Amino acid sequence: MAAAVWTVALAALLLPRAEAQLQAYTDNVTGYVAGSALITNAQCRERAVMGECLSEYGCAWCDARSINPARNPQCMSLFETSACPLQTTPHLTPRLPEQPFPACDARCGAIGLRDSCISAPGCGWCGATGRCVSGSYDGGPCVECAGGWAYRYGRQCPPGYGGEAEAAAGGDCSTCKCQNGGECTARGDCSCPELYTGTMCQTLKTRVDACHAHGDWDADLDDCVCDVGYVGVGDNRCAFRCDPATTCGGRGYCSELTGKCVCDTVAAGVNCECVATPLTTYPFADPVKNQYEKELGCCGYGFEPCPSSASNAGQCVLAPANGDKCPVFKEDNTTLVILVVLAGLFGGYVAAAVIAYCQTAPAPTCRVVARLPEALSLRESLFKRSEMDVASKHFLEIEVPLTHNFWRVKRMLSRRLKSQPDPEDMVLSYLGSELHNRWRLSDGIQCGDTVHVKMRLRSIEPTEFVRKRDAWRARVNAYLTEDNIVTAAYVFGLLVIVVALVAWPGDADRRL
């Protein structure tokens, strides 16, 4: 609801308190109209922050986090203070009727901006002093404010008459709306039958209904005892999962009304994970002190983090963080689908071409048998497969497609020959006629299965292989003359005789 500015001049419109007390204001949470009597524990529990709690007569703020970090601070009645483990320490801070002002909440005093102050629960802005102080719409500020007291809520109906929703709808707050036999009290809340509870007596006193399945109903306390890690009051008893030590990082506590973290004066953020500076940035993060602002979403005043669904998730942008500043790129696979379809069509075309090629008849070929001159022989190193390949070859047989010309035939023959002659020096003839290079096998040649051609070399000089072979043979013949052979035979015979004489032991002594 819109913030309202209240001054002391409005005191005449509100209910008076006891003598020497602050004039009454309308309460910001429950709509109770304050009186001189002490209120019940359930009513105190509705004051979920320290400032609101201490502004109500008969309520005390119990903060036991120093001995149990997991225990959430609570606002309780002075009649129930025995439940607070620190009742003899200043952490249990009651306000007695004779005290004109309650203790102030340091959390509100650390806020330096008016709008931030009014939006913080339990805090209001004193225009006369220009300071943010704790308090409530019903109890007023915690210190004397000469004028300009502004709080976040305006007029509210009492809870039994519709509460905030009835006031927002423009109702006259005159009809009691208690259910299941409940009745409206003088304070404006509902007095419920024994089996029912809730703002309008709409809920059964069971674990599932009243305690949202996260606590047990205690008949003596007439309230839920929440499981560890759950908080909540009123119609939201035990409805919020929040723990001051883990959820708020030990730098704040959980609001019983909303389940959100109420951070200390040096912290900010949803889980109090950011660093704040009192009087300058609190309750917002200090961008200067937060090095990982984008990752943590520690945004300063006037900035908001982009949601996790945005492409720049966690980045701080000027409020509001709408779609223009935090664009959400939806996954678009249109291009990928098109590429997959094109790839499938291309793959199908290639597959069809390969199948068609494999199923068609092979290109017609012709077996060409070339008669080799004596100077040429096959390459034994590459084509020796059996003993038949070792014997001297006078013919060379190759398989040639009919589309080849005779230049390619010469190249194929040259690669099969040991001496690798130049195809330009090779001459092929068929039936006495020379075959030109550009002619193809299908041009005028009757090729059934085999075509016999004759090959010769244009150059009369022997090839390098022939020259080396003739030189080796000449060297062998120079040594194998008749005189050399006879001499070698005589030398071998003499060696045999010498070896025999050396190895003979002689005749044994013969005694008669």
* Cα shape: elongated
Question: Major beta sheet, specifics?
Answer: 5 strands, antiparallel
Strand order of the largest sheet: 1-8-5-6-7
Radius of gyration, in Å, reads: 55 Å
Low-confidence stretches: 1-36, 380-384
InterPro entries: EGF, Ubiquitin-like_domsf
Signal peptide: 1-20
Transmembrane segments: 336-358, 485-504
Domain EGF-like: 169-202
Structure notes:
The longest helix is centred in the C-terminal third of the chain and has 26 residues, at 334-359. Among the domains are: 4-156, no CATH class; 365-461, Ubiquitin-like (UB roll); 467-497, no CATH class. It has eleven helices and 27 strands. The radius of gyration is 55 Å and the shape is elongated. It has helices spanning 41-45, 50-54, 106-109, 114-119, 163-168, 293-296, 334-359, 380-383, 406-416, 464-479, 482-503, and strands at residues 4-6, 59-62, 74-77, 93-94, 123-126, 131-136, 140-141, 149-151, 183-184, 190-191, 196-197, 203-204, 215-218, 223-226, 230-231, 240-241, 252-254, 261-263, 267-268, 274-275, 303-305, 316-318, 365-371, 395-401, 426-430, 433-434, 450-457. The termini are far apart. The chain is 21% helix and 18% strand. Strands 1-8-5-6-7 form a five-stranded antiparallel beta sheet. The protein has a five-stranded mixed beta sheet with strand order 24-23-27-25-26, covered by helices on one side. It is of the alpha+beta class and 512 residues long.
